[in-house]
């Protein structure tokens, strides 16, 4: 993992890494021929060789996976007129466009040449223009994905680079021509068809749109139909993990297999039967649900568990977790940079280490209390392990997660059972499948109703929290130190944890002091809209056009990150603004700085102001940040 991270943020040392890895491999071979006594004497050196060899492999593996380092990559071509490409992801409708990722085969400049690279293609069309596996001829030239234009905005370009996508193109349907079909990976193509088949069964037996969208997400991992209301409700109530197929779902499938095979043959042979049946079925489930990082982690883990039980060996859970991570990262090192991968593994580590500590706090006697306490303890363990990452990436914490998990975990178990039974019986009895569909729909509707009630409870939506990367690391060190203190009861860990708390307090305090001294004007870059924040001592007053005020997604994406950084997520009216309406537009004066918001229909002659912007603009060079003190000092000079 460290090798992969260094390869991402410190590229260019692959020759050194390859040389070092080769030398280490030779030393490893030499060490294997040493006598046992000598080997044991220097086994620490053997361990160091293994560690540094893994580091070098991680560094080189990511380099070999990167497409943009190759000479025939798309970014090295200029004046492209057209290109041939294969669709490598099922098109998804986004407003008036269908978005899909395509992989280049060749490009035309003066003549056709072999080329590689991936492009996010957006095609304006009224119906599905093509499917996975189609070979396309696309006219026009792809453009490099632009970086964030507003401060603290999500870096979509970097996110796509971790998927080996560096270009995008917006095209009309007349510019895209289908040349042939079934040109992509037959394995993935079959997966999409199978998933589409099961999705069609859900469409047949579930009528409600919201219930159908949740069933698709929960059973098949397809979240394309989820609307913002569902996502916000589940996220704020702490139940979002149910909508992302993960270890919970794979564990339920594994439990179903164990129950079905419980009485198969004799006890010793049963483990082999479980392994032979469970491993293909689990990978089949991963195959159907789209092979997401969380599913791959869980399926790999349960496969190792089933195989270990079959051969009569019990492995440490952390070792199994490490093996599954190693396998997945060797397959695709970019998985490490995905939030789902990080949250998935951190959650399991939390359950492994924190759950036993929480579980021992109370030893209930009745089965019902044991069941409730187990769910509670697991929820606390997973939440403690993942909440720093959740705040770092999503700026959100769900205070009612214990209440919601007591509902959704048992409910999700029943939903998966109902879904499996529905899929199994649909070809035998449509009547029985219909009853199962009604039961599944009603259960989902009940869960939605309860979660909606939790969402509307006072203080349920903590969505304006902020941690930067250093603060997140310090917070994890605090959690790690506290766990070791509880387990080992050593004063050194108590001291280390206390120092961590002091360090985190200082980091947060420094940012708080800086924010309370801030006087900043921010003009955001939002296509076809204008928005200005006047930030002063932890307060903000915003001016934006009326249409943007109704676009919560745009505000959340473009504007809110900067407000979180400055501690002004909630708009306040304590910022004093003076404004006046002129025939050409509106003038705003704040702390001696004048801003003129000009009507685009007005004449080009503008009065003399510090800043002038059009009320609607299609082009911009990025956001403008103005520090009041620096602005006035420059003007004085």
Care to describe what's here?
- This protein has 637 residues and is α+β, with helices and mostly antiparallel strands.
- Helix content is 54%, strand content 15%.
- It is built from 21 helices and 17 strands.
- Strands 1, 2, 3, 4, 5, 6, 7, 8 and 9 form a nine-stranded mixed β-sheet that branches. It has a four-stranded antiparallel β-sheet with strand order 12-11-10-17. The protein has a four-stranded mixed β-sheet with strand order 13-14-15-16, with no helix packed on it.
- A hairpin with a 3-residue loop joins strand 3 (97-108) and strand 4 (112-114).
- 29% of the residues are buried.
- The model has no long low-confidence stretch (mean pLDDT 84).
What key attributes describe this structure?
9-stranded mixed sheet; 15% strand; 637 residues; alpha+beta; 4-stranded antiparallel sheet; 21 helices; 17 strands
Largest sheet: 9 strands, mixed
Shape call: globular
Helix count, DSSP H or I runs of 4 or more residues = 21
Distance between the termini: 51 Å
Helix and strand topology:
Blueprint: H1 2-9, H2 14-31, H3 36-41, H4 43-65, E1 82-87, E2 92-94, E3 97-108, E4 112-114, E5 118-124, E6 135-139, E7 143-144, H5 156-161, E8 165-172, E9 176-180, H6 186-205, H7 209-220, H8 228-236, H9 247-260, H10 267-288, H11 293-310, H12 317-331, H13 339-359, H14 367-394, H15 401-425, H16 430-455, H17 469-488, H18 491-516, E10 519-523, E11 531-536, E12 539-544, H19 546-549, H20 552-565, E13 578-582, E14 585-590, E15 593-598, E16 611-614, E17 624-627, H21 628-636
Parallel strand pairs: 5-8, 15-16
Antiparallel strand pairs: 1-3, 1-6, 2-3, 3-4, 3-5, 6-9, 7-8, 10-11, 10-17, 11-12, 13-14, 14-15
